[in-house]
Amino acid sequence: MVRFEHELGFSILGRPAGEGRLEVEWVIDSLKEKGRNPNAILEIWTPFTKTLEKTIQLEEEWARKSIDYLNTVIS
């Protein structure tokens, strides 16, 4: 979530896992403390860039970053 420059509202933008506002490590640790064995379904809201090809490339980058990050948190 990003505040508009004029400070009248927000824009919801995707981010790779671990780079957004959700405290992923806290969520996973809390589940583990309760005896759960958590897993994840990754959904990325990739913003459209200048071209479809660049958007797909960004989505692939974010997916790889997210998977790498989640592998360090969920084990």
Question: What would your notes on this structure say?
Answer:
It is a single chain. The protein is mainly α. It is built from 2 helices and 2 strands. A hairpin with a 6-residue loop joins strand 1 (2-3) and strand 2. This is Xylose isomerase-like TIM barrel domain-containing protein.
Q: Beta fraction of the residues?
A: 5-15%
The averaged pLDDT comes out at 92
Count of DSSP helices? 2
Query: How many domains is the backbone divided into?
Result: 1
Q: Major sheet: size, sense and barrel closure?
A: 2 strands, antiparallel
Q: Using the alpha-carbon principal axes, give the shape.
A: flat
Which stretches are poorly predicted, pLDDT < 50 over at least 5 residues?
none
Based on helices, strands and strand pairing, what is the structural class?
A: mainly alpha
Organism: marine sediment metagenome
Protein name: Xylose isomerase-like TIM barrel domain-containing protein
In terms of topology, how is this protein built?
Elements: E1 2-3, E2 10-11, H1 24-33, H2 52-73
Antiparallel strand pairs: 1-2
